[in-house]
Design a protein that fits this description.
It is a single chain. Helix content is 4%, strand content 48%. The protein is built from one helix and eleven strands, in the order E-E-E-E-E-E-E-E-E-H-E-E. The strands form two sheets. Strands 2, 4, 5, 6, 9, 10 and 11 form a seven-stranded mixed β-sheet that branches. The protein has a four-stranded antiparallel β-sheet with strand order 1-3-8-7, with no helix packed on it.
Length: 122
Amino acid sequence: QLQLVESGRGSVQAGGSLNLSCVASDYSDRTYFMGWFRQAPGKEREWVATADRGGYTSYADSVKGRFTISRDNAKNTLYLRMNSLVPDDTATYYCAADRLLSRVLASRPTYSGQGTQVTVSS
């Protein structure tokens, strides 16, 4: 059973930056696709970014050019660097892992963390 623990919650003003981290209990199995999704109050889950086993990354159009996803296999950690934040980025952010990319992209992964809150004020 893979366990994911996010950290890095915070509140910033528009234009600010935040870093999120996700530590995986077992990163030795690198067959997992890893990613982030978010959910704002009253809204559906939204896929944010994915990093595959080979380090290839992809982003939702809403965050492309502002967010950067990365993996540090030595530290069993997935990161999300968020720059130029806007109020629409306000949401609970979840780390995701699955052997199927489609589940990560659909924000319905087999494994996800407890979530960490990001609040951006105007």
